[in-house]
Every structure is written in C-alpha cells, then in structure tokens.
C-alpha cells in the first residue's frame, strides 16, 4: 500500500490516497501499527483520502490508538493539499467531506509539496449535550468548575492555573483551561486524566492556554487518542471560541503551538476560520504482514 507522510505544524499523519490505492480492510487495526514511531511509519494517526459523492474528497481519520475521530483541523488542511497536489481538484476553493460535514477549504500552493490552507471549520457547538459533557447543566460550559482536575495540586500554583474549563465542540470535543505558564503544566500526567474522565462520554481533547495579548496566545494540547501533539487545528479553533466566550481574547487570534502558528478568526457567531500550512514529508510503501 502506497502512503504519503504529511504534517501541519508537526501534527503528522500517514495518508493513503484512496483515489489511487485500495483502502485498507481494517483501518482501525492498521492505525496503531503504521503510527508506531519505532516499528511503523510514525505519526499521530492514519488518514484516508477517499472519493466522495458530496465533495471533492472524503477524509476518514484514525487516531494512533485506532479510534476513529470526527475531525482534525491540521489533517483536513493536509487532505486538501494532497487532493490538489495529486490533481483530484484544482487549487482554490476545495470541498472536503468530514465527520463534521462538508467543509470549504482554500488551498494556495506555496511549493511543489506544500500549501498554505484556510479552512472554514464550521460553527462551534456550545451546548453541553452537543459537546458532549455531563454534570455541568444544560447550557453553555463557560468557565465551569473543572471536576476532572481533581483536588488542588502543587502544579496549579506553579503554572498559575485557573481551575475552570470552557468546553467547545468543533465536531469533536474540547476542554480549554487557562494558566499563566503553559510550560509548567504536567500535561503528560493531567492530559490523560481529563481525556478519560466520566464527564466526557466521548472523551475529550485538552488544551492549556497562556494569554500573551488579546490577539495572541500560547497553547499546549493533549489530543484524544494520540496524546501530546505539536499542533491541533480544531483545538486552536476551540481556543479562539473560548477566548471570545470568556472575554479573554478577541475574535482575531494568533495561536502559538509547539509546532508553529495558526491564525484564527471567529466573530462570535457563524463558522470559525483557521489558516496554516500543510507539507508533504515523504512517500513510501507499507508492506503489512
């Protein structure tokens, strides 16, 4: 099976162009094997780029643990780049079918194997049941007490944590927490604890955010099913929404992630816009068993 390795700000996946290749028989079982950074290709998961009757292509995303996810912002940028680079659609406005619905993506090639891509991410879902999150009432979850954190720990003081969460769905669930210093958060310990807390029936992506200015934040992510990642496009979109809802930041926002910067925009209603790079790394052949 031929594959292409691409990344968006270091959020890397193994992509299979199913216009040219037969899709794997069991992608959920393949994802952990091909994603392994020692015995496989290495990546945060597996993404299939398939023909669609509703759009230029369909994206199916499997996390590194084999679970299927609804949406990935960095992933959809890479899918759109691949669709254009392989000649399945012309550059410009491209439609991609995702678990979130059909998204419109603007692809501007900046080289033979890279593009700058703007994605209309869709409207955020803000009601607790739609995210979903339980035990916080029926309305919006804005600066709610974060039970999944558990009792106060020394690291709260070290990072200047505000122990209240704002929850947003961008087609997949996100919990956003603010602190003074994201580098001081023991993300490898607290991330999985929040991800799998019973408050989140479908688990959750966890983001810690440091506000640098009203139009600029720094963030770190624990991604559901993949762990610590260098970037999360849906997460940055959720952080933009959370900043507007809490009054901490404006609707035009630059988000610095460990892998680089994403530019976000949200007016308080309607869809979130996200702009960032997509880049091919290498091609190869997966031999399987």
What's this model, at a glance?
This protein is α+β, with helices and mostly antiparallel strands and 289 residues long.
| Distance from first to last alpha carbon | 11 Å
Helix and strand run: EEHEEEHEEEEHEEHEEEHEEE
User: Which value, in Å, is the CA radius of gyration?
Assistant: 18 Å
Classify the fold: give the CATH topology of the largest domain.
Answer: Diaminopimelate Epimerase, Chain A, domain 1
Compute the number of structural domains: 2
Would you count the extended β strands for me?
Answer: 17
CATH superfamily membership of the largest domain, which one? Answer: Diaminopimelate Epimerase, Chain A, domain 1
**Which of globular, elongated, flat, extended, rod-shaped describes the shape?**
globular
Which percent bin holds the helix content? 10-25%
- Structural class of the helices, strands and pairings? alpha+beta
CATH architecture of the largest domain: Roll
- Arrangement of strands in the largest sheet: 1-2-3-4-6-7-8-17
Number of helices: 5
**What percentage of amino acids are in beta strands?**
35-45%
Largest sheet: number of strands, sense, barrel closure: 8 strands, mixed, barrel
């Amino acid at each position: 099976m031929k594959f292409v390795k691409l990344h968006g700000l270091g959020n890397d996946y193994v992509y299979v162009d199913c216009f040219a290749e037969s899709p794997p028989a069991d992608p959920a079982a393949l994802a952990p094997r091909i994603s392994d950074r020692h015995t496989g290709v290495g990546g945060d998961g597996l993404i299939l780029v398939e023909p669609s009757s509703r759009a230029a292509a369909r994206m199916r995303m499997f996390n590194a643990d084999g679970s299927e996810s609804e949406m990935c912002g960095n992933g959809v940028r890479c899918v759109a780049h691949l669709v254009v680079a392989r000649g399945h659609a012309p550059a410009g406005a491209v439609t991609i079918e995702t678990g979130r619905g059909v998204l419109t993506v603007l692809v501007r090639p900046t080289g033979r194997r890279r593009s700058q891509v703007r994605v209309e991410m869709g409207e955020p879902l803000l009601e607790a049941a739609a995210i979903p999150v339980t035990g916080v009432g029926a309305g919006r979850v804005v600066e709610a007490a974060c039970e999944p954190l558990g009792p106060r720990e020394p690291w709260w003081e070290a990072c200047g944590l505000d122990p209240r969460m704002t929850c947003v769905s961008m087609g997949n669930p996100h919990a956003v927490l603010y602190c003074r210093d994201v580098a001081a958060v023991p993300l490898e310990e607290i991330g999985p604890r929040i991800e799998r807390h019973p408050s989140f029936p479908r688990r959750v992506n966890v983001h810690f955010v440091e506000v640098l200015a009203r139009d600029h934040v720094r963030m770190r992510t624990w991604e559901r099913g993949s762990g610590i990642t260098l970037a999360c496009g849906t997460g940055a979109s959720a952080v933009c929404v959370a900043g507007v809802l809490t009054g901490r930041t404006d609707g035009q926002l630059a988000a610095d992630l460990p892998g680089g910067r994403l530019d976000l925009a949200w007016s308080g209603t309607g869809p979130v816009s996200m702009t960032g790079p997509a880049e091919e790394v290498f091609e190869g052949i997966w031999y399987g068993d």
